[in-house]
Amino acid sequence: MGTRRRTWRTVDIVVASVLGVAFGLIFAAWNNFVYPTVSLPLEATPFSPVIGAVWLMPAVIGGLVIRRAGAALYTEVVAATTSMLFGSVWGLSVFMSGVWQGLGAELVFALLAYRRWGVFGSLLAGGAAGLAMGINQSIVTVPEFSLGWKAVYVLAAVTAGLVAGILSWFLVRALARTGVLAPFASGRVQAEV
């Protein structure tokens, strides 16, 4: 990978930050107004992570749009931090969730050598972000669950990650068609997004 690929431009930092803050605001609304209602039927079950796709999308979208090492992690952490600052019932653990979820997606983009940006890479990145979310939360959030329930919990989180991966891929494609991603390779090569 050449220097050009590794170096972040100002526009990369600004757009990743804007994406992160925008998702952080979405998280704050989701966490405070939507999640408490939609999670009720799943409360205290290992299926609760299945509705967590929204929390995994910034990492995948950040990676797909910016296409630089660290973009998935950075965008997810900015989103988690913004959400935390607007008040979260989960407190500081939101920041660590963002770190783990961002690292999950980042690992996939790194394994793909920051060169594969299609639907398969997006699904893998989302699934890995979900896997990281599921493992982290099965230890931190639901330590009382049996090993079997924790396995189901992690699988539900991976499912949410796959949903996040495909939704992110479609969203980036839609954004590319509008022209707003023109400064990025993701906006210039729609067929590859």
From TrEMBL:
Pfam family, one: ABC_cobalt
Keyword hit for Nucleotidyltransferase: no
Bilayer-crossing regions: 12-35, 47-66, 73-92, 98-114, 119-139, 151-172
Record keyword Transmembrane present: yes
Keywords: Membrane, Transmembrane, Transmembrane helix
Descriptive protein name: ECF transporter S component
Organism: Phytoactinopolyspora alkaliphila
